[in-house]
Amino acid sequence: xxxxxxxxxxxxxxxxxxxxxxxxxxxxxxxxxxxxxxxxxxxxxxxxxxxxxxxxxxxxxxxxxxxxxxxxxxxxxxxxxxxxxxxxxxxxxxxxxxxxxxxxxxxxxxxxxxxxxxxxxxxxxxxxxxxxxxxxxxxxxxxxxxxxxxxxxxxxxxxxxxxxxxxxxxxxxxxxxxxxxxxxxxxxxxxxxxxxxxxxxxxxxxxxxxxxxxxxxxxxxxxxxxxxxxxxxxxxxxxxxxxxxxxxxxxxxxxxxxxxxxxxxxxxxxxxxxxxxxxxxxxxxxxxxxxxxxxxxxxxxxxxxxxxxxxxxxxxxxxxxxxxxxxxxxxxxxxxxxxxxxxxxxxxxxxxxxxxxxxxxxxxxxxxxxxxxxxxxxxxxxxxxxxxxxxxxxxxxxxxxxxxxxxxxxxxxxxxxxxxxxxxxxxxxxxxxxxxxxxxxxxx
Length: 444
Fold this sequence. Notes:
The chain has 17 helices and 20 strands. 35% of the residues lie in helices and 23% in strands. Helix 6 (113-126) crosses helix 11 (273-288) and helix 6 (113-126) packs across helix 12 (293-301). It has helices spanning 11-22, 37-45, 57-60, 77-84, 92-96, 113-126, 141-147, 159-163, 190-198, 217-225, 273-288, 293-301, 330-338, 361-367, 379-385, 398-408, 430-442, and strands at residues 3-7, 26-31, 49-52, 65-68, 88-90, 103-108, 131-135, 152-156, 172-175, 209-213, 231-236, 244-248, 251-256, 259-264, 311-316, 319-323, 344-348, 368-374, 391-395, 414-417. The strands form 3 sheets. It has a 9-stranded mixed sheet, covered by helices on one side. Strands 15-16-20-17-18-19 form a 6-stranded mixed sheet, with helices on both faces. By secondary structure, the protein is α/β, with parallel strands linked by helices. The protein has 3 domains: 3-90, 3-Layer(aba) Sandwich (Rossmann fold); 94-301, Mur-like, catalytic domain (UDP-N-acetylmuramoyl-L-alanine:D-glutamate ligase); 311-442, Protein-Tyrosine Phosphatase, Chain A, CATH 3.90.190. Residues 107-286 form the Mur ligase central domain. Belongs to the MurCDEF family.
């Protein structure tokens, strides 16, 4: 009997444990933090042994294979010991993949991947396909493989999940874009992070498809040095594309497998140029899977965007409050600021991942009237923008941030939460940060 040890007792860990047990593995779950009561109950109901607030080496180092949750870095002491012993350490996606015959669509990228994933899932579901949603969002992929019987899965994949794949291969892979993010996990080496993203296509063959942003510089650089086997489709909002999708004035034109198809950009439920790209990527997937054009048109106009992603919360006394808590890096904050059309009070800050804020300089100069720093260490933000805006305030909780913003805002202004940073200094995660923002706005 093969022994699987699962590191991390969250959604992906518990899902993997359930699937492994069903497949006849001897399973043990170990979490260095606390496992929530809900997950403890699930593990107990399946009679899966677990521990939390510790890693007992005698129960871990004897594993045949280890599934590591994406939040645990390779430099964690227990992971180092496993690698020294040459125990295979993989991700949930890699573990679950051999146990399903479903076709998978894998979507990665520094920004836009959640919106693109939700949009692709929406398009396929509306078309009547038997499709599951998993990866970084929704219920764990492994858990669904254990209990559901989908023909297709749309998977949102982080670079951490891709680091742990060996044989996993999506039939259709989408890389939305690449910008510096999580560099703390890649020895502050941008090339390592880029290579990590491209792992999504490493096992693809000539029968598979790879969809990418033709405007993205990092992708272009990678392609100048590397070759892939999959059929390439790209999308662009600046140039004409022979095979893929592009923007022609306000029309999206698709040329895929010698078929042409147009979509009026005004018919799309999402605002902002970057969302045109997300839409092009999702529609390209639907088109490859032979979804009817009429269904695509209808689905694009009735799509509800992702929560915490340029989400309009409320308009109070002529001031619009927008929650973009999911803007956890500079590039995402760039998109958010770029889509502002009124004077903006910008709430920014959190755990810096090696950010370079200078690329936001022009936008801040043009659009931002005041900055509210919401983080434990705001030195870098203050140093960068101190001379650019007239008003800069430091706060250490969401309630104060929102009250300060209300005090500074005038009719016609926008208050934007787009932190450009991770949330772990003051919040559990970006969802918690966004939810607290929305609650504070509703309490004004």
